[in-house]
Every structure is written in C-alpha cells, then in structure tokens.
Amino acid sequence: MQARTIIGAAFVALVAHELRPCSSLSSVMRISRHIMARSSPSIGSRASRNIHSVHSSRRGFLTRRGGNRAPPRRTGPVFSASELSSYDVDTDEGAEQSLAQSPVNDDAKSSIYLNGNTIDASTPEGRANLLSELNLHLSTTVASLSEHRTVSSTDVFCNRELRMDNIRAVGFDMDYTLAQYQQPAFDQLAFDGAKEKLATLGYPDEVLDFVYDHTFWVRGLIIDTQRGNFLKIDRHKYVRVAYHGFNAISSGMRKEIYSRTFNKQPSFTEKTFVNMDTLFQFVDAHLFALLIEMKDNGDSEFLDFKTYDEIYRDIRRCVDLCHRDGVIKDEVARDPSKYLVLDDGMMKMLNGFRESGTKCFLLTNSFWEYTQTAMNYLYHGKKVDDETLRRNEWLELFDLVVVGSCKPAYLTDPYLSLFRVDPGDGSLRNTDGLFEIEALGENGAAKFLSMGKTFQGGNWNHLQAMLNIQAGEEILYVGDHLYADVLRSKRQLGWRSCFIMPELPDEMRTFSMQRDLREAIMELRKLRDELSQYGDGLKRYINTGEFEQKGEMQKKLDLIAEDDWKIKTKLAELNREYHSSFNPHWGQMFVAGYQDSRFGYFVKNYACLYTSKATNLGLPLPSRVFRTSGELLPHDAMLYSRTTNFLDDEECL
User: Fold this and answer.
1) How far apart are CA 371 and CA 392, in angstroms?
2) Residue 323 to residue 367: CA distance in whole angstroms
3) Distance from the Cα of residue 600 to its chain's centroid
C-alpha cells in the first residue's frame, strides 16, 4: 500500500492526474522510478522493489511483466559473419518509430541469461564471466576497457558496415567539408550581396534593411515555392510542421493543403519543392521568408505582381551570382581568418591516409581561384602572399584535384568534358580524357597525372580511370550536401559515403541534456500502448459473450479511453517542450514527431558514415571496421526488453 501511495504521488506530478486501477503497473513503475530516483534514491529503490513484487504476481491480459523467469535455454553454435568487402550494407528500412522504439537506457540488456546463469555484463567482472561462459579467451586488453563507453561529437557514426582497409581512395568536397565557415559571418556576405542585387531588379529599397538570422532554420526542410511555405516532413512524407514565411500554419490548414488532396499523395519532388539539404540554402530561405512577409502585408506594389515562385527564383539567381561574381570570393580572399575555420587535424588526416596507401582526392564545385585561396589558408594556417599562393604547396596532400565539378551532374552525366588546370595562372587546356589515358598505354593513368593533377569538370569515369579504380565500393566520398555529395554518389555509383554535419555537436549536446524528459515521454508512450493492449483483452472477453458483467467491462473500456486521452494530452505538451529544446520552430533535426524526419531517413539510408567534421576520419585506425549498432523491427524491439514476456498464440486465448 505504501508503494502504491508513493508511486501514485510521483505519477500525478508528471501527468497531472491519477490513472485508473486498470492501468498497467509496469509503466507506472518505470515512470515513478524515473522520477523518484532524482528526488529520493532510497524511496525510489524501495518503491521499485515493492511494486516489482506486486506486479510480478498480477494476472491479466498484459504481457510486459517484470518477473525474473529466464527465457528458454538456447543451444547451438554462435556464428560470426565474415567481412570481406567495404560494401557490407545493412538495409535500413525497419525504423518505423525511431524515437518510440529506442529507449535510452531503461530496457538495456545488462543482464544476460546463458547456460542457466544470470550474468550482469555491464561490469568488468560480468564481462569476464560472459567470455568464460562462451569459452572465449581474449587478451588482457579487454580488462582495460572502461565500464562506461564515452560518446563524443568527434566520433564517426555508422549506418552501413565499412572496412577502411578495403577503401583505396578517399575523396573530399571542400565547402563545409574540408573548409568549415564561420557563422553567420560567411552567410552574411551572400545575404548582403543578394539584397543589393534584388534592389537592382526593382525590389523595394526596404529590402536593404533586412536582417539575417540563421538560427531560425535547420537542414532537411522543404520549401514550397508555389505557396510560400516551409515544411518539415517525416519519412512517410507526412507534413509535421509548416510555416508560411515566419508564421506557423495551423494543423487543420496544414492537413487541408498537404494531406487531403483528392486521390493523390504529394511526392514533394515537383519543381516547386526545393530541398534544404545544405547550409548554403539558409540565406535563400531567410530572404524568401522576409519577402513573403512583405508581400502578404501589402507593403510593396512591386511584389503584388510577383508570385511566390517568381520571388524565390529571383532570390536564387541573386544568391548564385554572389558565389560567381566575386562578392563572396573576393571578401574571403581579403580576410580569410574572418570566414574560414582552421583545423589542425586536416593535414594529419590526409597525410595519414596517404601513408597507409590510400589515395586522396579533392572534388569540389568551387572554381580554381577560390579553391586555391581557401586551401592555401587551411594549409598554411594564415593568409599568404601572392608568391606563396601560386606555389600551391597544399597540392602535395592530394593525388588528384577536380574543381568546377558541377555536382551532381559530375556523378550522373558521362559526357561532360575534362579540362586540365594550370595551377600557376588558372588557365584551362583541353584533354581527350579517357581516350588520352588509354592511348598512353601501360600505366596510362600514372602518365596522365604526371603531366598535372589539377582538373576542371569531367565526370566520374575520368576520376575512376585516373585513380585506376574499377569498383565504386573502393571509393569513400566525404561531403556536406545530402543530395549532391551523398545520395547521388551512393545511389548512382555505389561509392561509400560519409556525411558531414557541423550541426551534430549541438544536436548531441541537447539530446544528452534532455534524456530525462525523453525517457519520461518514452514511458508514457509504453503506458499508452499497454492500456490499449489491456483494452483489447477486455474487448475479446466481451465479444465471446461468456462474460456476464458486460456493462462493468464496458465501463472499464470507457475509463481506458479517458486515461488514454489524458496521456495523449500530456504527451503533446512534453513533446513540444522536448522538440523546442533543439529548435523552437522546427524541433529535433533527425526526428519528426516520433518518427524519422525526411532528413534523418535519407541520412540513414544513404550515408554509410556521418560525423561532425571531415577531420574526425583521421582519428580512428586506418584499418578500422565501422559497424552498425543493429536494427530492430517493432516486434523485436518489444521482445528485447527484459520487462516483456513472450506468449504463444495458445497462451493468449
């Protein structure tokens, strides 16, 4: 009784109401233990023990019981898959509810049942006992491993298994990959330049007073240029959050526009939908939102005659021109320290790859003049004079450099021509590409590169021929653009891919700080699911016609429905608080609601690896094998929990 009182009070503090007696005690126990452990460890542990004993003795329709009954003993050998290629891919289609099915630590399997023994594998002693039971004799280095694994934003995270020792060439994009930019200073160059260009097109002078705020935006959004809307969708193309300019669109209006179209499911691939897959697009988005606001307010007669789509296309042309006419490039060359971020790990990483026998190449859409400026600054750690600039000593870090590559066309169009770049003056010369390499005979690729290793344009055929690589799986390409760098290289060519996310440290930091709140959300979702399962059991009894007190059973179903609504309301409140901690407008970047966002879905499916910056790849061993953390479908995820018991069909009836 005392345990029930303690748990009831703790649970009321969380959900602001007391659940009915038919609620599942397993979820109440977990939520209460989570809350009380922070306020009074002794009370929390005592109540947990009391409730655990009460709950284990209950009979009913619930299967998530926390007893100590061991599962059936398994016999047979333990098999280990042999990894023979860098291209060991696990299809990642099973994460139906990434937030819902991956608890942080409550259901982690620290205890293992093996040969009739319970082994706590979370401690060094338990790990030693596990190895002994498996007859696995390892060196003493295992005993040196820490009891708690450290996770850092400098780690390289794996979606698809990859053997680095089978990678023959590693390629890098430059912008936001090898060259990281100071924010918002770098974006401000394009923002201010685009404002001035818009004014020359006839846009009102008030545009020149616009103020840039990059913190409003996150990657992975979709711009509906036809309607002037910004969307965040989940992996199933359901719009979860929508804004018109800077104004949030109501749930009803959002569904009316994007979910209730007659006999048609929006694909979001039409030309009027633009994916915000790169940090460069924050400038476009902010200018567009500001002009939408100006147009809607009727502040400009000029804008009255412009559609939203025409406004966006004008913005795109102006921003693109800033990247080509010197507005950005000349200013960065004048003061690179103001805009570029130095990273001491770059040279160590590139030299480490080459010392291990792995070729390195640079493949960027930037043209030679800007590439030369940025890479010289990153190589020397300072702005250099013109003579040093022309020496281009940074080229020694690469086996091949391709500028002005025009990705993603570089990865899809086999007819693009290859030009040789003179590093001294940036002039171009024609080449015969593949025909010239073939005409040079034996070791044609090496002879071709001996005449110069800097090029502009071309296509993937030229690159693989110059690197003397036949299989795409032997190339790892590192870039920041989800579509042009990762998706296309992976889908079209089978290259292995590493996605660079400068935002990852902030995402990880916030996730770590909000673990308690996330765990409370998880437990409420489990409780809601168990209530539904309990109701299913009552419904089956009513349908059999064998239960005389059908009226009483129906009252219990009504109480379940009432409790479910209360939990749903509280979950909505907690979810808003949780997602707002990441971004007050768009929430967690990888998650939409309780599922993968479109952005998270594509990162999972097309990025073999991902990390916060390119130089993190220089931290692991050159022979490192990156392994996935494993994936579970919902039924396996539920069975994996130690608080779940499996019932065969006969036991459920």
Assistant:
1) 10
2) 10
3) 4
Q: What is the pLDDT of residue 544?
A: 73
Q: Is the pLDDT of residue 48 over 70?
A: no
Phi, psi angles (nearest 5°) of residue 119: -120, 125
pTM assigned to the model: 0.79
Q: How far is the C-alpha of 559 from the C-alpha of 538, rounded, in Å?
A: 12
Do 228 and 245 form a contact (C-beta atoms < 8 A)? yes
pLDDT of residue 117: 67
Helix (H, G, I), strand (E, B) or coil at 222: strand
Distance CA 96, CA 636 (A): 12
Contact 420, 384 (CB under 8 A): no
Q: How far apart are the first and last CA of the chain?
A: 32
Encode pLDDT of 528-567 as tens digits: 999 998 998 888 877 776 656 777 888 899 999 999 999 9
Cα-Cα-Cα-Cα dihedral sign, residues 480, 482, 488, 489: positive
Q: Which residue has the tokens 């500001």?
A: 290
Q: How far apart, in whole angstroms, are the C-alpha atoms of residue 195 and residue 635?
A: 54
Give the residue-averaged pLDDT of 159-182: 95
Question: Please, which residues have CB within 8 angstroms of residue 125's CB and are 6 or more apart in sequence?
Answer: none
Per the CB < 8 A criterion, the answer to whether 24 and 9 are in contact is no
DSSP code, position 77: P
* Euclidean distance between CA atoms 292 and 223, whole angstroms: 12
Cβ 26 vs Cβ 530: under 8 Å? yes
Phi and psi dihedrals of 157, rounded to 5? -100, 145
CB 615 within 8 A of CB 346: yes
Query: What are the E-state strand segments in 20-99?
Result: none
Q: CA-to-CA distance for 515 and 578, rounded, in angstroms?
A: 9
Name the 3-class secondary structure at 590: coil
- How far apart CA 109 and CA 645 sit, in angstroms, is 14
